[in-house]
Design goal:
836 residues; alpha/beta; Nucleotidyltransferase, domain 5; Rossmann fold; seven-stranded parallel beta sheet; EC 3.1.-.-; ATP-dep_Helicase_C
């Protein structure tokens, strides 16, 4: 198949309906013998209307197609071009279905000899890519894409992607390719034929970098050797600035020396350094220089796994490259559950090949395990069904194979610098005793540690576990068990599983209705039924997988029951019980405070640590430690960022009128500015209600409106937003974490509410120690999306008067110039916008 002729095709269409929408542009690139040999493209004039969204996305207008040929006039010519080729597209089902339907309308029956989807292939061959949309994927692989969403340019990029896939496939071990072929035979695409062709041309070559563990090939992990580089702060800092083409900042160098001094002299330092200063690089440079000089290990902790990954894979690599260093002894460590369990992988490999999602998961894992140097599951970002299938496999085993976690722990113990996250900090201090820690995003430490001391049980997860046992689908555990045993008990087993599943509904409805006694009753009933099921399994054949799964489910129920009996739980209620969460509270955090007292140097850094001129709230995070306090300010930080607070909006509690006012301000923006804006909400409920109200008005039909959902990662939404020149994006504050808004130096954001709850009269102490610092940080983080470079300008429209009227307003506004704050009505809004 590798030597066949491939027609790599892309269509731009007027919409997604195969029956009513039309093809606007057709592009095809022909690949043969490993190279591009020909290309063809044309517009079609089969429609007299192109929606604003399609026009914005593709840059195709009615004027561009009005003199083009009809599809009818070119159908036979195109058919003759591609009829003997393997059909290739990025999301092949869309392009092939659309083209086949168009051919059918002209009396041409087209079925390709074979078809390949570069989305599916990329997910298998490049399992660690963050997205499989064509533009970011090709950019990540170094493939040029001149104009995204134009047929010929997309087809060219897809053709180059196909050739990259062919090349990468040849690097996979032959043993692994054979295993992949046996799985891929059952996939809808013709990937198996491609694998067979690759296997035929690949000889078995011994690879010292791979080792075999239970018939799975994984990359051998080595502990880096220690080395000394005689680093100096100034030279390391200057090399980094030159490499990144950044400007020297006295404040950043000051921060480096404060951190370095605290590490070297065993000090406890609390540092507030403004957002955008470059804290990540500062703490890395200080830690590297100190560790290189003394040989002492430094533990760096940041707030989230996302930021931990960015610190390790981006900031560290930039620093090393800037000084021409290939390897330095820096490692990353997370909790054990973040690393792949090879026993679970073996269980997955034994599942049947009649489920597309399971087959894709198997193929991805086989390729990834040959590549990964950490075994960190975040590298392949398992979501939805894939994550559930992996967890299901994990639950089926009474033993585990934590090769990757143990190797990562071994590497961390021998590293100069260890990077972890707040959720794992306590465990990390237990596993790797260290006397020097640097805590980034320290304002989030307390909540992260408290979260790490909780275990959440969600309704959908428990229902999924039961569904994996039942008889609804062929690949379920009970069906497999009954294949090896007499089936007269099958109906009885199925009844028990159904009753346990019904209990889950009753339990979570009871949680939602504050009826804990009813929940306890049905938890006990469920445990009894699970015990009954388990007892009937003993002495039968091949019962171990089913037993392990049921036993793990029983453990979950027992944890919930134990928490209720100890009154060590929280319930996060929702309107619908299926979204209710039961949270088990683990042991006290006092153990962390005791551990903190044994650490010689502690450096806490954040964009917001000082609250009302004090750092006293730090005592709640790291015990009664005495911190040396530093505040690094920048009076001109938000010099070109302006803030508008409307004085004519309805009260936030009057939701309908408040949303109507918000929508009115958005329409004023669109009338005044021909660009895009982000509207940030504090919850999805109001986001969705505002979106529906916007669509009902009919005022937004001429502009793309994007909407964040819990299932869409912010980075994927950002890709769409950055590709459009004019649009609105409705999102939550989570959208601002680690994102970079591109394509404009003039950025506009709406913020519907300050990101914290209204403080309760009897809980002001907690408000100032926890809620306020976190809200100030989120607020500055949002501003940081507006102001990324010296040339950036930005406008923030805030629908919350508290920022001007409450005594904590200075915590938010201390970096703002007074002349940049406007408190007016909507009639002044247009004048304010025109100044941008």
């Amino acid at each position: 198949m590798l030597n066949q002729r491939y027609a790599v095709i892309d269509l731009e269409t007027s919409g997604n309906n195969f029956n009513t929408d039309k093809i606007l542009e057709f592009g095809v690139v022909f690949v043969e013998n490993g190279e591009i040999v020909d290309e063809y493209s044309t517009f079609f004039c089969d429609t007299d209307y192109i929606s604003p969204f399609i026009s914005e996305l593709t840059d195709i207008t009615i004027d561009m197609i009005k003199n083009a040929p009809t599809f009818k006039s070119k159908a036979r010519e195109i058919y003759e071009m591609i009829k003997d080729c393997t059909f290739v597209a990025h999301n092949v089902s869309f392009d092939l279905t659309f083209l086949r339907n168009a051919f059918k309308n002209e009396g041409i029956d087209y079925t390709p000899i074979q078809k390949l989807d570069t989305v599916t292939l990329s997910k298998i061959i490049y399992p660690m890519e963050r997205t499989y949309q064509l533009a970011p994927l090709t950019e990540s692989l170094g493939i040029e894409l001149i104009r995204a969403h134009r047929a010929l340019d997309d087809a060219k990029a897809t053709a180059h992607l196909l050739l990259c896939i062919f090349s990468q496939l040849s690097n996979i071990n032959r043993h692994t390719q054979i295993r992949m072929y046996k799985i891929a035979k059952y996939l809808d695409d013709d990937i198996a034929s491609l694998l067979f062709s690759s296997i035929s041309s690949t000889s078995e070559i011994s690879n010292d970098e791979l080792i075999r563990i239970d018939d799975i090939l994984v990359r051998k992990l080595d502990v880096y050797k220690e080395d000394t580089y005689n680093f100096k702060i100034e030279s390391l800092y200057q090399a980094f600035l030159t490499y990144k083409n950044f400007k020297h900042r006295d404040e950043q160098l000051e921060l480096i020396y404060i951190i370095y001094d605290a590490l070297k002299n065993n000090k406890k330092a609390a540092i507030e350094a403004y957002t955008g200063l470059g804290k990540s690089e500062a703490m890395l440079i200080a830690s590297i220089v100190y560790s290189d000089e003394t040989g002492n290990q430094v533990l760096i902790s940041t707030s989230k796994k996302l930021l931990q990954n960015q610190l390790f894979f981006n900031s560290v690599q930039d620093l090393l490259k800037s000084s021409n260093i290939e390897n330095y002894n820096i490692s990353m460590l997370k909790g054990k559950g973040n690393y792949v369990d090879l026993e679970a992988v073996n269980t997955l490999m034994k599942l049947g090949n009649d489920n597309q999602e399971i087959m894709m998961l198997k193929l991805k894992l086989l390729v990834w395990l040959e590549e990964t140097l950490s075994g960190d599951l975040s590298e392949i970002d398992l979501r939805g069904p894939e994550r559930m299938y992996y967890i299901s496999a994990l639950n089926q085993n009474s033993t585990s194979n934590d090769y990757f976690y143990q190797e990562s722990l071994k590497r961390a113990k021998n590293s100069n610098i260890v990077i972890t996250n707040h959720y794992y900090l306590f465990n990390c201090l237990e596993a790797i005793p260290t006397a020097h820690i640097v805590v980034d995003e320290a304002h989030q430490l307390k909540s992260a540690l408290e979260t790490s001391l909780k275990e959440t049980f969600k309704y959908p997860d428990l229902k999924f576990l039961m569904s994996q046992i039942g008889l609804d689908k062929k690949d379920q555990l009970l069906t497999d068990y009954l294949k090896h045993n007499e089936s007269q008990n099958g109906h009885y087993f199925d009844t028990i599983i159904s009753e346990i599943s019904e209990c889950i509904d009753i339990i979570y409805q009871a949680f939602n209705n504050h009826d804990i006694e009813l929940a306890k009753k049905y938890i006990n009933t469920s445990i009894e039924k699970v015990n009954m099921f388990i007892n009937m399994l003993f002495g039968t054949k091949e019962f171990q997988n089913l037993f392990n799964y049921l036993h793990n489910y029983k453990i979950k129920l027992s944890k919930i029951l134990h928490a209720i009996n100890k009154n060590a739980f929280e319930i996060k209620r929702a309107k619908n019980h299926t979204k209710t969460e039961f949270i088990v509270l683990k042991d006290s955090k006092d153990a962390l405070y005791k551990k903190a007292q044994q650490i010689d140097s502690q450096v806490l850094i954040s964009g917001t640590l000082e609250v009302k001129g004090e750092f006293k709230h730090l005592e709640k995070w790291f015990g009664e430690s005495s911190f040396e306090e530093h505040i690094i300010r920048s009076e001109s930080l938000f010099k070109y960022v302006e803030l508008f607070i409307p004085n004519d909006i309805s009260n936030y509690k009057n939701e309908d009128n408040f949303m109507l006012d918000l929508i009115d301000y958005m329409t004023l923006l669109l009338e005044s500015k021909n660009q895009k804006a982000v509207i940030l909400f504090t919850n999805y409920e109001q986001l969705n209600e505002t979106y529906e109200m916007m669509m009902d008005t009919g005022l937004f039909n001429d502009i793309p409106v994007l909407k964040q959902t819990p299932k869409i990662p912010p980075d994927k939404l950002l890709i769409q937003y950055n590709q459009l020149n004019r649009c609105l994006l409705l999102a939550t504050s989570s959208f601002t974490e680690g994102v970079n808004i591109e394509n404009t130096d003039e950025k506009i954001m709406f913020l519907t509410k300050l990101p914290f709850p209204v403080p309760e009269k009897d809980n002001f102490k907690n408000f100032y120690r926890k809620d306020l610092p976190e809200a100030v940080f989120i607020f500055r983080q949002i501003l940081g999306r507006l102001k990324r470079t010296d040339r950036d300008k930005g406008k923030l429209i805030l629908f919350d008067e508290r920022l001007l009227t409450k005594n904590y307003s200075n915590a938010f506004l201390k970096y703002f110039e007074k002349d940049n704050i406007t408190y007016q009505d909507r009639y002044s809004f247009n004048d304010w916008l025109s100044d941008l």
